[in-house]
Amino acid sequence: MQVELDRRRPGQSRITTPRKETDTCKILSGTHEGMTTGTPIHVFVPNTDQRGGDYSEMAKAYRPSHADATYDFKYGVRAVQGGGRSSARETIGRVAAGALAKKILKLKSGVEILAFVSKVYQVVLPEDAVDYETVTMEQIESNIVRCPDPEYAEKMIAAIDKVRVRGDSIGGVVTCIARNVPRGIGSPVFDKLEAELAKAMLSLPASKGFEIGSGFAGTDLTGSEHNDEFYMDEAGNVRTQTNRSGGVQGGISNGEIIYFKVAFKPTATIGKKQNTVSREHQDVELLARGRHDPCVVPRAVPMVESMAALVLMDQLMAHIAQCEMFPLNLALQEPIGSASSASELAPNLS
Amino acid sequence: MQVELDRRRPGQSRITTPRKETDTCKILSGTHEGMTTGTPIHVFVPNTDQRGGDYSEMAKAYRPSHADATYDFKYGVRAVQGGGRSSARETIGRVAAGALAKKILKLKSGVEILAFVSKVYQVVLPEDAVDYETVTMEQIESNIVRCPDPEYAEKMIAAIDKVRVRGDSIGGVVTCIARNVPRGIGSPVFDKLEAELAKAMLSLPASKGFEIGSGFAGTDLTGSEHNDEFYMDEAGNVRTQTNRSGGVQGGISNGEIIYFKVAFKPTATIGKKQNTVSREHQDVELLARGRHDPCVVPRAVPMVESMAALVLMDQLMAHIAQCEMFPLNLALQEPIGSASSASELAPNLS
Amino acid sequence: MQVELDRRRPGQSRITTPRKETDTCKILSGTHEGMTTGTPIHVFVPNTDQRGGDYSEMAKAYRPSHADATYDFKYGVRAVQGGGRSSARETIGRVAAGALAKKILKLKSGVEILAFVSKVYQVVLPEDAVDYETVTMEQIESNIVRCPDPEYAEKMIAAIDKVRVRGDSIGGVVTCIARNVPRGIGSPVFDKLEAELAKAMLSLPASKGFEIGSGFAGTDLTGSEHNDEFYMDEAGNVRTQTNRSGGVQGGISNGEIIYFKVAFKPTATIGKKQNTVSREHQDVELLARGRHDPCVVPRAVPMVESMAALVLMDQLMAHIAQCEMFPLNLALQEPIGSASSASELAPNLS
Amino acid sequence: MQVELDRRRPGQSRITTPRKETDTCKILSGTHEGMTTGTPIHVFVPNTDQRGGDYSEMAKAYRPSHADATYDFKYGVRAVQGGGRSSARETIGRVAAGALAKKILKLKSGVEILAFVSKVYQVVLPEDAVDYETVTMEQIESNIVRCPDPEYAEKMIAAIDKVRVRGDSIGGVVTCIARNVPRGIGSPVFDKLEAELAKAMLSLPASKGFEIGSGFAGTDLTGSEHNDEFYMDEAGNVRTQTNRSGGVQGGISNGEIIYFKVAFKPTATIGKKQNTVSREHQDVELLARGRHDPCVVPRAVPMVESMAALVLMDQLMAHIAQCEMFPLNLALQEPIGSASSASELAPNLS
């Protein structure tokens, strides 16, 4: 869990916010002697580098394109220090929970979830620069921008450095892949797997777009060009020759690699003077102080992975409940007066 | 409701599937003498032009990029006639419910939801061709492809005709706008307004992408270019000079026009021979018969509007429950022994 | 399903409402060639013996202790014919769904759910008259009041006949048992198994009370008298000597028989003159016509069983999703390139 | 909030567990300068008097009728100290949240929720000893057992003292009333108000029964005796002459006082030797140490009130969202270009 939190924390490199948070997590409940107990797990991550003073201007005026205005519209209050719930600190919980989901998915089904930066501002990683079958966490983590291609990583870092020094910000795109997802996961109508992923990604701060498989670019093809033809592989499995579907067909996984992209806008809080209005409805100028990310995408990588893991974990659980009751038949069908039922339902007992 | 269903039904024009369904809806329960009764409304829409024979080849082999394979993976059964739940007929329910939601939203809050086709295959409607403030339902419905610009509508229809005659298919993009949405609607963390919209749109058949406001293109701008500056308008309201946010900031509406785009891939079922596999795991060739849409986007327009209306209706109800209890104070706080409470809680009584 | 609906239908005997409904069910969707398809199952049960004229008086005045007044308070409308959603006809859907749940529970886990009438008005079936281990459906269905003890059945029928002829009504108690429920089913805090059962039972029309295990009578014992001591049975299982817990401890099943009781008040609609008020707020007298049950409990028996089955089915699915992922390990963890994964995830394929 | 927690805390009197916990609550998030911010409110209540040693015997053997066995069956782990989630400490969260709900209900709708002890072991408070219209919190809190009748309070305390000194335990019944609940609150089918209350009460530790209004005793009456006749009161409201319905008809409140009873079994953990089995499946004897309540009902009073408040709060919010959109019409229907809309949607702004 701490490893994942460290990938998310502020101050991890020169291209993230200079705010220094260790984001050290402490588990207050839910585990006992190294095992989960079935109780909710309480993870506590205190702030260590908070400077309230930075927020004095922002307390008076709404930051353009930031959530503080709409919060005030909705709730009629402002808790401006650190941005309240619209602060990216809110994503600590997502990453902590995602770390557990990733571990269970890996252990139970061999699922591997990896995200990386595929665009920063106008620097676009070419589609063929990364092989979704083989790309590794090591390659992604080999540089501070989290792009598995070293050459493009350099260009992206340079782009961030350029806006960073003048107090401006930029956005980008994170690509996420999930390998070894069993086929059959997902739902056919409202809760399609791609719908759940889309919701999860658009719930991340600063995200403005989601596309799975061929996405928006798929509209440039005809059906005969776009369709993924099926074939039988050597091991006797139904596979597809191409994967424009992105691993899902009609809301349900087909066993191919799931991949999707998420667009993140440039950070709203910038170190440049902007026109805005105050809570008292006066036109004012705002120069935000605080210490903010020049580009959110390197830190968004673990957030995207975590949300993907949480969605897949939920969907896997739902799938097991709905469609995999059969193999449990033996364990469950026997009345209590049978030794096998006792040991199988509570295997740790014996 | 019938008006909306007619916008969705097959056979409405030469560029949709030639299957002739009247999609006549019949309300079986939930209304009495022209009023809803609080009971679930049962809308019954029977099939009238079903030809089971068309599906004989498809019963044996999986259609590439179609949901029938993943359905079989998940449920171990196939109900191939008409595509089962992965048929676009499933969207009738969405459009019927959406018709009600649109009516309530319009009546209670003046909300107007309009969608139109902004891309068909490689024909792209320019951003400045449509004014989101003024575009009307009449303009959208003035042609069979549902693009408010007559010139581009012609080009789009021509593109569809071209693939239609050779049995191929194409996709496109639907843009949706919602005007007069009160500010403060939405949720700050997991259930952000844009997240709910993204889920709703990705739950539509054939959709592969969603972007709100500046979307993926927003990553080409810096924060100082992208931010929407606030100002006070003449009526004393907090407004934004630009609207790259697409009407939402941090999950909550800001009172500006909400707009988003949805990408739809080319229809999977085509009248061209494709390689695939059979349920018995044999490599086979498939030539689908059936009668399918050469391009789904004209019929997707009412689906997108309907899903947007359902999301906004849900969020408006949640907002009222959470944040608008105050004005109800008088109606609810009085004990039963007061005439005003009786009449206000059940206004139809007197 | 029809068998269960016949146990619920009006007009089944002289002690139920004389309204003659065959309650013939027709499945409109969700099955294909005798198998469920994973699609929602649409069961259609039309009314056949509706006499609107019976409701003319009731349309003007509120029936004492009936839902029609509160409906009007809440929704401001009245759909009085047949009682709208507060009619017992609403329970058809519960019984139809419960029939499926009972079948799956029996098939997958050997769970048997049986309910019977244990009190009618002041006729109380003694606790020791029925052996929860051995009582059968045949015994319960051997008489029209659904009490497995023939002697008490006669007394109960006599009690109903007595009020029936003078247009009055009486209530009673239904006892329900569930045998062979695997241990470990349920949830530890808010969604305790007994809590879910209580909600399900109090959602039935006319129910006013629920108790599980020793219930209210358990408050007459001390802890040392009440506690169920554990012992090891011959088959090596942890069992309890007594079962005052009613098969649940702290929200989770312990493998013993689950049993609970539900109190049903006398039917509100009676054929006797009562004082009430009209919608126009005038004090009036009401003599209800309609044809109503003199005692609802014989028909409540399949309703109670059905709701119990739905709760247990839900909880079993939740349990499998949360705690039984382990045995699925092999089926799910293998990547798509393995034959075993393909066949196990979609067993019907080969 | 602290006042309510003090009513629940251990060690408050000689008839509760002698464990000394101050249960001092500390709010870690969700408020700012005395106002809630819309963010989840984190209430932290640390343990101060925990003696792990007390639990050494219990760690080896299952306590009869306690949740520790079923927890182990379900999760395969034991976290025995303090009982884990099956400890009554879990109810701190319910009481803290309930304190807020009670405050909002009182403020917005004048709702008053009061619970009191109406039975301890075989000491039964007569029905006519308490007037539901006038009973006060002061009367209830005037003695340590929380029975508003001083004479019966003495008898109840004596009964508890008697079992306390010999290490045994007893249970009882808590009655709860809610005054001034607006009519129209609740739902007509599955989520009836009484169903939600039943679930909430059966989710409390040690509860075994729930009855609303006439409850089980109502089955001793005929319909003509049981029905609550309507009349018009002097203020022009529809009222009922009697209240055997307990304030609900068909799942929806009718404006009369809501009242219900909850049965609590004797505390499972007792200071007497009992037969049981160990985790290793050996028959053993257990003499629990720990410090446990001789009778849980005095401390259950605030728990029952809190759960009732949470249910009513939820249902009131749902009612507002579903049925009270009308009065919000003016506030919400105006487009953003109107001053009234701005100020009404965010009243704290101006």
TrEMBL record, chains A, B, C, D:
Cofactor(s) the protein needs: FMNH2
Gene Ontology, cellular component aspect: cytosol
Enzyme class: lyase
A family per Pfam: Chorismate_synt
UniProt record, GO biological process: amino acid biosynthetic process; aromatic amino acid family biosynthetic process; chorismate biosynthetic process
Source species, domain of life: Eukaryota
InterPro entries assigned: Chorismate_synth (IPR000453), Chorismate_synth_AroC_sf (IPR035904), Chorismate_synthase_CS (IPR020541)
Pathway listed: Metabolic intermediate biosynthesis; chorismate biosynthesis; chorismate from D-erythrose 4-phosphate and phosphoenolpyruvate: step 7/7
Region annotation Disordered: where it falls in the sequence: 1-21
GO molecular function, one term: FMN binding
This protein's record includes keyword Lyase: yes
Listed EC numbers: 4.2.3.5
Reactions accelerated catalytically: 5-O-(1-carboxyvinyl)-3-phosphoshikimate = chorismate + phosphate
Alphabetic keyword roster: Amino-acid biosynthesis, Aromatic amino acid biosynthesis, Lyase
Role: Catalyzes the last common step of the biosynthesis of aromatic amino acids, produced via the shikimic acid pathway.
Protein family according to the UniProt entry: Belongs to the chorismate synthase family.
Protein name: chorismate synthase
